[in-house]
Amino acid sequence: MRWQGRSTRKKTGGRRKRGRKKRKHELGDEPTETQIGEEKFKTVVVRGGERKTHVLQTDKVNYIDGGETDRVEIQNVAENGANPNYARRDIITKGAIIETPEGRARVVSRPGQDGVVNAVAVDG
After folding, report:
1. Cα-based distances in Å from 87 to 19, 20, 78, 99
2. pLDDT reported for residue 124
3. What is the layout of strands, in order, in the sheet containing 76-79?
4. What is the pLDDT of residues 38-87, one digit of tens each?
5. DSSP class per residue in 2-49
6. What average pLDDT does the segment 108-119 reach?
7. Structural domains in the chain (count)
8. Distance CA 123, CA 105 (A)
9. How far apart are CA 41 and CA 31, in angstroms?
10. Residue range 18-44, pLDDT digits in tens
11. Which of 30, 53, 83, 113 has the fewest C-beta atoms lying within 10 Å of its C-beta?
């Protein structure tokens, strides 16, 4: 769990006094680092009783080229603007450039939040 409340430090670096304890609604989960592999999902209950599906591993992507959509295999992560180490570790996030048999594609969904990997074709 990760606390997402206000920092205990001020802009100046001075310490801020706690007015109260941490609250449950200020807690967050660790980021879901979706990797390439056999499909594996995790469903969590979030605030308001809703459900959210995290993609832990996947080897398939909904590849969108113009008006056509195909489910194709992911070969590897070419680059990831979120973190250069993610590309080396084949971690898929929104904005990552992946390689497929159809060509390169940019991930437009949030696999750790949406429960699906969607990508649009990239020229070049």
Report:
1. 42, 41, 6, 11
2. 58
3. 68-73, 60-65, 118-121, 103-107, 97-100, 76-79
4. 999 999 998 899 999 999 999 999 999 988 999 999 999 999 999 999 99
5. EE-S--SB-TTSPBPPPSS---GGGEEPPP--EEESS-EEEEEE-GGG
6. 94
7. 1
8. 8
9. 14
10. 999 999 888 888 889 999 999 999 999
11. 30
Are 86 and 80 in contact by the 8 Å Cβ rule? The answer is yes
pLDDT at residue 119 greater than cutoff 80: yes
User: Does any domain span residue 21?
Assistant: no
55, part of any domain: yes
Separation of alpha carbons 31 and 33, rounded Å? 6
Whole domain around residue 67: which residue ranges?
32-121
Which CATH number covers residue 40?
3.10.290.70
Cβ atoms of 60 and 35 within 8 Å: the answer is no
Residue 12 lies in a domain: no
What separation, in Å, do the N-terminal and C-terminal C-alpha atoms of the chain show?
A: 40
Question: In the numeric block, which tokens belong to residue 113?
Answer: 């939040």
Residue 6 maps to a domain: no
